[in-house]
């Protein structure tokens, strides 16, 4: 790999000389920049073609990158989203750059520097919003971006993919009502997230539609984690007239509810029915396997990449897409046991 | 951002001219390649310094990439490894390119093309081996690589990070013996993986050290998945003299054992103790929370990046590193219940 092989190829300096332009102009043409006259562009491109110039420096074009940014990689559904994005990226010969940055609300400021240097074909952000400065920087480089927002709180001017939270809340609650439950508790997500409120509203509407009263003492806000599910379930199970079923608002919270039941000496589903939300892998693996609302996380990742590619191609694209949720019945739900008065 | 700003800076062609070397030599110096005499290197570097050359084309250095390749992203411990690699990459201002490719044994052939184009600062592979052709291609580009190999089956000439499987098997079994168990079943991993054999040998040695006989009817090979754990546990629990404890060889298999116990009407830990292996998040979240062997997956990812950076810097580095495993006692193990003869 000495100078021998290199010298057989034309150098960019030689192209510049033959075209009568500066080396930086040749470089701009190679990198597809717009601030070069079209006459110059054509001249340079013909020279490169004639000499079969191998674009060893065009990293961004030959090995395209899609950026995927999370604020937190340890939530169990990150992997499902990653797989969706990775699947579709691979189908388009692109690789995925994975970054953990910032808070639930926005990536950290230094993140954007790396993105601008890597020149990805697009950015998928798992955040509920995006600072205006970041939007402007990406827009200025024509780098399209899409928010995947399981929290359901997108800004109207940002393309985003979510799922149907309200319908999910209705389906979970209706399933429990159909089994015969009348005292149904809910542990939804944090109070400041739209998805929590949408699922809670779905729960209330399902009760209303069935002509059942809504008892505010059976409603709790959680944190989407196991510990929160456990703590709130312990409160619900200590009520004088405890619920016979709990809609847990996330699979992790449902695991916490099952552990609370175990500690209180209650069997699931014989003494307490539990419904989760998300349908991540652990829902299948818990003991008993968890009845839950399937949120199509992998498809949401795939859809986000599809949106990116449409945006990049300048095709018209919807701004907000909500994928359907669906009930998956496993073994954590059953009719309520007959109780002594 | 027109030509004005660009022209105020020295071009690489001018540096080459002033140094009396070819443009490709200047480029080699910039890219840190070794096939340039040190006199030439010093001359070129001084010129670049004098003219405050801004390395706008050095994408690889300004936004460095670390490649992380899995054959399968859906195993629960992928995320822990990803977080380890991502943590340490971020500490070195590098980004992580995540790829799913090939089989358990090696990445797919097309994967290497993308890597050579992206010119990462190094490659972390979660595979048990690497084809010679891939090794040669990476070596020729001076791209260092490290295998993270939880299966414990590394090739001697490839730098790799693993963990202490035999010691883990001893610790799990000894914990059950110390609780008073005498009939201890084991469901280890697949028969063709070294880590399975190491954990099984650890189990046998712990029994021997305690003066207990080793009963081959209590030994099963699994698949490291929940379903395999469930099926093998059903076999063990149907034995006339069933085990009072099972060492499950992976946390997923342990979940399968717990579900088998539930289906057979046995309580964990009152009627059956269960020990997992890995200590992934679900071990904390299962009901009851799982006693398990902690495999330091995140640290293994971090260590792999450290090894890459040492290799890249030309520092001496060990070829094989095994991190320690440790017992984490939670609530799935207890002394055996007194049984009627």
Automatic annotation (TrEMBL), chains A, B:
Pfam families: LacI, Peripla_BP_3. The keyword Ligase does not apply. Residues 6-54 form the HTH cro/C1-type domain. Signal peptide: none annotated. InterPro entries: Cro/C1-type_HTH (IPR001387), HTH_LacI (IPR000843), LacI/GalR-like_sensor (IPR046335), Lambda_DNA-bd_dom_sf (IPR010982), Peripla_BP_I (IPR028082). GO terms for molecular function: DNA binding. Residues 10-65 form the HTH lacI-type domain. It comes from the Bacteria. Keywords: DNA-binding, Transcription, Transcription regulation. This is LacI family DNA-binding transcriptional regulator.
């Amino acid at each position: 790999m000495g100078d021998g092989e290199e010298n057989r190829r034309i150098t960019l300096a030689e192209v510049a000389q033959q075209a009568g332009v500066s080396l930086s102009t040749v470089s701009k043409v190679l990198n597809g920049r717009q601030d070069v006259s079209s006459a110059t562009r054509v001249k340079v491109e013909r020279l490169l073609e004639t000499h079969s110039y191998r674009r060893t420096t065009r990293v961004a074009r030959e090995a395209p990158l899609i950026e995927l940014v999370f604020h937190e990689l340890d939530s169990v559904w990150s992997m499902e989203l990653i797989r969706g994005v990775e699947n579709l990226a691979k189908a388009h010969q692109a690789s995925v750059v994975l970054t953990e940055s910032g808070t639930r609300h926005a990536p950290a400021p230094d993140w954007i520097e790396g993105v601008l240097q890597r020149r990805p074909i697009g950015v998928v952000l798992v955040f509920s919003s995006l600072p205006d400065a970041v939007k402007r920087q990406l827009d200025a480089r024509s780098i399209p971006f899409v928010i995947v927002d399981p929290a359901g709180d997108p800004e109207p001017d940002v393309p985003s993919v979510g799922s149907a939270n309200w319908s999910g809340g209705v389906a979970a609650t209706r399933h429990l009502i159909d089994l015969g439950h009348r005292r149904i508790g809910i542990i939804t997500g944090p109070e400041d997230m739209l998805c929590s409120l949408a699922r809670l509203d779905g729960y209330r509407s399902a009760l209303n539609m069935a002509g059942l009263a809504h008892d505010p003492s059976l409603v709790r806000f959680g944190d989407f984690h196991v510990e929160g599910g456990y703590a709130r379930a312990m409160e619900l199970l200590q009520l004088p007239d405890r619920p016979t079923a709990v809609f847990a608002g996330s699979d992790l919270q449902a695991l916490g509810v099952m552990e609370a039941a175990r500690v209180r000496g209650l069997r699931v589903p014989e003494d307490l029915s539990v419904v989760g939300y998300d349908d991540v892998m652990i829902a299948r693996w818990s003991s008993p396997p968890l009845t839950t609302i399937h949120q199509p996380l992998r498809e949401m990742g795939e859809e986000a990449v599809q949106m990116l590619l449409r945006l990049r191609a300048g095709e018209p694209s919807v701004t907000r897409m909500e994928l359907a949720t669906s009930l998956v019945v496993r073994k954590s739900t059953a009719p309520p046991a007959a109780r002594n008065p």
